[in-house]
């Protein structure tokens, strides 16, 4: 099977997930949001699985840098999707996919251990 890990190389949580996978000998491809971008379709599929509140990372600096007024305008699935395509750093990360389907968002050793 094919695993893809979506994220940003300098994110500590992504680094932990990559290291965990490498240490367990799991073969995966890394998709860098910043360089490779992300499609609206992919974001929507993740939101269907995990929910918009999870996919849009409101704890991160990308979101916190926005004014409260701008934040309040990002309030529908299509606006959230557009924002995340333009600002993929605001996507909760990492997202791990197996054979094209997301199986985990974020990273915890317990979650990954249960998956592998």
Keywords, please?
116 residues, alpha+beta, four-stranded mixed β-sheet, 4 strands
Helical run tally: 8
Assign the structural class, choosing from mainly alpha, mainly beta, alpha/beta, alpha+beta, or little secondary structure.
alpha+beta
Question: How much helix, percentage-wise, in residues?
Answer: 40-55%
Q: What's the arrangement of strands in the largest beta sheet?
A: 2-1-3-4
Low-confidence runs = none
| Distance from first to last alpha carbon | 12 Å
Number of extended strands: 4
Shape: globular
Rg over CA atoms, rounded to whole Å, is 14 Å
Mean pLDDT: 96
Order of SSEs, N→C? EHEHHHHHHEEH
The biggest beta sheet is recorded as: 4 strands, mixed
What is the subunit organization of this protein? single chain
Percent strand: 15-25%
Briefly characterize the structure:
The chain has 116 residues and is of the alpha+beta class.
Ordered list of secondary-structure elements with their pairings:
Elements: E1 3-7, H1 12-23, E2 28-32, H2 33-36, H3 40-50, H4 52-55, H5 61-64, H6 68-73, H7 77-86, E3 95-98, E4 101-105, H8 109-115
Parallel strand pairs: 1-2
Antiparallel strand pairs: 1-3, 3-4
């Amino acid at each position: 099977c094919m695993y893809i890990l979506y994220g940003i190389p300098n994110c500590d949580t992504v680094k932990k997930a990559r290291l965990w996978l490498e240490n367990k000998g799991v073969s995966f491809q890394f998709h860098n949001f910043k360089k490779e971008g992300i499609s609206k379709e992919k974001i929507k599929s993740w939101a269907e699985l995990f929910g918009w509140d999870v996919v849009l990372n409101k704890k991160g600096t990308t979101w916190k840098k926005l004014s409260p007024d701008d934040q309040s305008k990002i309030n529908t699935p299509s606006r959230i999707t557009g924002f995340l395509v333009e600002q993929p750093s605001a996507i909760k990360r990492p997202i791990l996919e197996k054979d094209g389907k997301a199986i985990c968002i974020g990273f915890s050793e317990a979650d990954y251990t249960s998956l592998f």
